[in-house]
Amino acid sequence: MTTITAQPTMTDDYKLLTPGPLTTTRTVKEQMLVDHCTWDDDYKAITQDIRANLLELAHCDPDTYTTVLMQGSGTFGVESVLTSVIGTDEKVLICANGAYGERQADICRHAGIAYTLYREPNDRIPDAGRVETILDEDPSITHVSMVHSETTSGLLNDIESVARVAHQHDCTMIVDAMSSFGGVDIPVQAWGIDFIVSSANKCIQGVPGFSFIICNTAKLEASRGKARSLSLDLWDQWDTLERQHGKWRFTSPTHVVLAFSQALREMRAEGGIEARHERYARNNRMLIARMKTLGFGTYLHDHQGPIITTFTYPQGVSIDFADMYAFIKERGYAIYPGKLTEEETFRLGNIGEIYPEDIERVTELFTLYLAERGLLAACTGNEDIATVLDAMRAAGESAR
Ligand SMILES: *Cc1c(COP(=O)(O)O)cnc(C)c1O
């Protein structure tokens, strides 16, 4: 007997299948019920503890690396690094294969920072050999920057090889690991990454409000005076955190910081990055396997990361995303529109407080949607929902 476990109910209490903000635990949210002052030693100790914890997660030696916390969303963190560490007589090579790589070029244009843009299509990764050629041909390039998990497509870039080439050319390596840090293990120091950026509301599973930057301390110190912005001055932010032992330079997002501290504790209790990666990767494998039985394909054929997946629609079937979105959200899950210009797609994230049960439930809802709109046979070649669900479960189980 096949039954559908998802109950179609109207609710505001839905889960987010988006790459951040994402679904957090009740215990993380409960930390925000406290109004904390920022000048006491106990609050500063929380900030210092977060900074030390992040260094540990990045596998960095505290003698050579340091953590800076920066108010604002993730982009503020990326903008802080780019506008603070690249001098007026320096130049950055941006390797881009999606919207977040393009955003780095946007930031440079706004700030008047010299840059070269090396573009790959959304489904291809920047190639270290190509980076090497570009650096050989243009000795004025001093920095290399790229995205790790390109959330536009869900692709995971090879930052290790590019960082190696950057270092061989004495270039500073900058990485936007916004949607991967904490969900994918990154040996930051061993790979020679000098600045890596992520934010509170992605794989650490906190709420939005600040970003964090793990910095090669010597390179950070050398950037003093280069910043083009007061609020986003990375060196100055660090200097205050250091001199005042965890005091933020301007108003600290206290509720977000307390929630983040709890999120770090919960991450440790889960088993750290390794366990979290395992859970995300399982979610991702199950999701792709189950969606494929409904005729949804993956946009990527190589380099699919474990964070978010871009899905293509079943061949020859016309599906209204807004209608599908509303149907699924009413039943408990927010899905995500596509961000590609060349193809009709949508995305499903599988990070946050999301477990195999959620993957099962949401893929059942897709099945129910197709059945209710009379599209099931066109998508799967089968009219019988019970048969489709059985096939989907079998595929999901073998992908676990
Ligand atoms: C989420 C994200 C960002 C930051 O986006 P914000 O909306 O500013 O938080 C930057 N880069 C990548 C790859 C991301 O996934």
From TrEMBL:
The keyword rRNA-binding does not apply. It holds the Pfam family Aminotran_5. It comes from Bifidobacterium apri. This is 2-aminoethylphosphonate--pyruvate transaminase. NCBIfam families: PhnW-AepZ, PRK13479.1, transamin_PhnW. Substrate binds at residue 347. Its EC number is 2.6.1.37. HAMAP family: PhnW_aminotrans_5. GO terms for biological process: organic phosphonate catabolic process. InterPro entries: Aminotrans_V_dom, NH2EtPonate_pyrv_transaminase, PyrdxlP-dep_Trfase, PyrdxlP-dep_Trfase_major, PyrdxlP-dep_Trfase_small, SP_NH2Trfase/AEP_transaminase. It is an enzyme of class 2 (transferase). The lineage of its organism: Bacteria, Bacillati, Actinomycetota, Actinomycetes, Bifidobacteriales. The modification N6-(pyridoxal phosphate)lysine is found at residue 202. It catalyses: (2-aminoethyl)phosphonate + pyruvate = phosphonoacetaldehyde + L-alanine. Its cofactor is pyridoxal 5'-phosphate. One of its GO terms (molecular function) is 2-aminoethylphosphonate-pyruvate transaminase activity. Residues 45-339 form the Aminotransferase class V domain. Transmembrane segments: none annotated. Keywords: Aminotransferase, Pyridoxal phosphate, Pyruvate, Transferase.
